[in-house]
Design a protein that fits this description.
single chain, mainly alpha, about 300 residues, 14 helices
Length: about 300
């Protein structure tokens, strides 16, 4: 027995692995423009005459179908009932027939595909593509707050300290939309998308935290070094808590160079800023502290 099933969902998510491994999956794609023109000519052959459309009108009719052959036939039926004395252009057609609603499922694959496209367009510094995917999501009825949340994430994940204003712009857009709502507040989202797409990019902070997390898991529950522990009681002071701590502000350069990693753990360099945007300045600061730290080590100070 052969069982045939159809779904508009992604079978990778909607079918259990045991069933999917025993099934042959056929992916049905949306019809492209040439496919729609073929269907349009077949429809005209069946009704016995060409539709009253200019060349621009035919293009617009296919665009209105948005890859849906069944909807194209619905449009053909509407146009065929119109007077045939004056061919319809794109603008006349738009006034007379119903446009297909954009295909967008806010709860399933389309939702995740388009937000992924928007995020990756931002990461790739393609402003125009990012604006296109933003427009697609808003036209499909996506919650603008969901988009703003992802824009804020992109600001800290893909831009970071290359432009510290990126997250400020994202939060400002979020706040502006909260105050204005749609449609006026959507312009704040547009402005944020343009800012993030054109900003210098860096994931150095993202990578640094990942490396620090791996080291934290590897080293377990090591205690901080005793000299940087507070000693609020006499017993803790007697045990050596805080002994040998050097107050950085009391030094000539405001830097003691002491060790802040657990005892016995080799110092690691997690954050490695690039040469893009503000991270160039951050790198200069880190190089300065590293130089002072090496000087302290060479002098044999703690």
């Amino acid at each position: 027995m052969i069982l045939v099933g159809a779904t508009t969902e992604n079978p990778s998510f909607e079918l259990i692995g045991a069933l999917l491994s025993r099934a042959q999956v056929f992916v049905l794609r949306r019809l492209d423009d040439s496919d729609l023109e073929t269907l349009l000519r077949r429809a005209e052959y069946q009704i016995g005459h060409d539709l009253p459309l200019t060349e621009d009108g035919r293009v617009a009719l296919r665009a209105m179908a948005d890859g849906d052959g069944r909807f194209l036939f619905n449009l053909v039926e509407e146009v065929a009932r119109l007077p045939a004395d004056i061919p319809l252009g794109a603008q006349e057609l738009a006034r007379l027939v119903q446009r297909r609603a954009p295909l967008y499922d806010k709860a399933q694959e389309g939702h995740y595909n388009l937000i992924s496209a928007l995020h990756k367009s931002l990461r790739g510094s393609d402003t125009d593509a990012a604006l296109y995917w933003l427009a697609r999501m808003l036209a499909g009825g996506e919650d603008p707050i969901y988009i703003l949340r992802r824009l804020t994430r992109a600001a800290v994940e893909d831009i970071g300290l290359a432009d510290p204003q990126a997250v400020v712009q994202a939060l400002a857009a979020w706040d502006t939309y909260d105050r204005l709502g749609s449609p006026e507040g959507e312009l704040a989202i547009v402005q944020c998308v343009i800012y993030l797409a054109t900003a210098p990019k860096s994931n150095a902070a993202y990578q640094a935290f990942g490396e620090a997390g791996r080291m934290a898991r590897e080293t377990g529950s090591l205690m901080p070094p005793m000299h940087i522990l507070n000693a609020p009681t006499r017993l803790m002071r007697d045990l050596g808590y805080g002994k040998g701590y050097v107050y950085d502000h009391a030094t000539e350069e405001g830097f003691s160079g002491q060790n802040y990693f657990p005892d016995g753990v080799t110092r690691r360099n997690f954050y490695r800023p690039g040469e893009r945007g503000f991270e160039r300045e951050v790198k200069k600061r880190l190089d300065y502290w590293d130089k002072l730290r090496q000087r302290v080590a060479d002098q044999g100070q703690p």
